[in-house]
Amino acid sequence: MARLLLIEDSPELSALYQAYIEEIGIEVRIADTGRKALQCLDEGDFDLLLLDLNLPDMNGMKILQSLNAKDHQIPVIVLTGQGSLQSVVDTMREGAADFLMKPVNPKKLVESIKSTLASLTPKSAPDSPPRRASGFYGKSTAMRNVFSLIERAAASNASVF
Q: How many percent of the chain have pLDDT more than 90?
């Protein structure tokens, strides 16, 4: 069973998201502050993070930066109610797998979670043969993440920057 850390300060939204996620067979742990989220990350092994950018004690970007500094390889889906093009770009540069605007459509949330989990490769993947996608060629974990992002974006009708 996959494990997801939901980082959301609104108890109502946490309960709602948790119900949607557990319905598809994913274990959910909730952290309502950035400090609690970082503690959970140090204590637990999670397959995915669902991260609200606006937390009471810190900005979600600091959590993304902390993950990068500690070289955590956990995919992150960012949620926010006050997003801008710049915040999308910034979170993607920090390694976010997806960016969703609140209020989140339940179907879109579940779709994003399933897609992100499906794109995870086994830990032995760097030894696998190189891949080629959209004119890019490579086998590193970073390039596999790029390929995954390209595949997910290609299936969408949304504009991609």
A: 48
